[in-house]
Amino acid sequence: MKVALYHNDQERSLKIVKELKAELDRQGIEQDDANPDLVITVGGDGTLLGAFHEYIGLKEDLRFVGLHTGHLGFYTDWLGNEVKELVASLVKDSGERVSYPLLKLTTKMVDGTTEEYLALNEATVKQPVGTLVADIYLGDHHFEGFRGDGVAIATPTGSTAYNKANGGAVLHPSLQAIQMSEIASINNRVFRTLGSPLIVPTGQSITVKPKHQSFLITCDQLEILAEDVVSVTFEVAEQSIHFASYRHLDFWHRVQEAFIADIDH
Q: What positions constitute the catalytic site (predicted)?
């Protein structure tokens, strides 16, 4: 097994990375940041998102492990004081993994050319100044005319972020689906939207056709100023992200810990 370490530059993270490197060496585990079989991230969920975009296209069976320098997140299973335990799990590794669906977004230009992106958490279409005016299609069917701040499209694991704030549902990552939620939509006699989240499965798509010469697309942490883009299509990606499942925490446990664990029962 070859392991890559991906981390932020915070002092605590750098200290943990030093401990990790020493423990990996002690256990005889090869470190290879260029062509790893497994990526260990040290930081938070944002750090893991960065690692995802750095490595996701490298190999189909690549796995990730997240070590959090604070509290456990939605993608991180280990804490900073568990370096030895984490490396010990690698020594006994036999390739176990748990897989989560990804979001594919495809932009289509005026000249017909396309470009594809992958998101682990979510993507949005917004108008930086003023409101976004767009037609929303489900497959080839025109579904609604939208006017508002924008739309957010989330994976199941990303459904707890911006999507939840928009009133979207929290989806379990075993569901191969994506979800669109509205960001401050305007409803009147001209523009009428469903007003509820839209959940579509694998094989179906959501297409946003803004009526602007330029607008903003976000893809996880990436921001794209779209110019001469006529449409953005969202669907469940063929690829998945894989996590080493040594002790991968149950999704509903993560949701409870993140939002309601401090409530007395």
A: 45
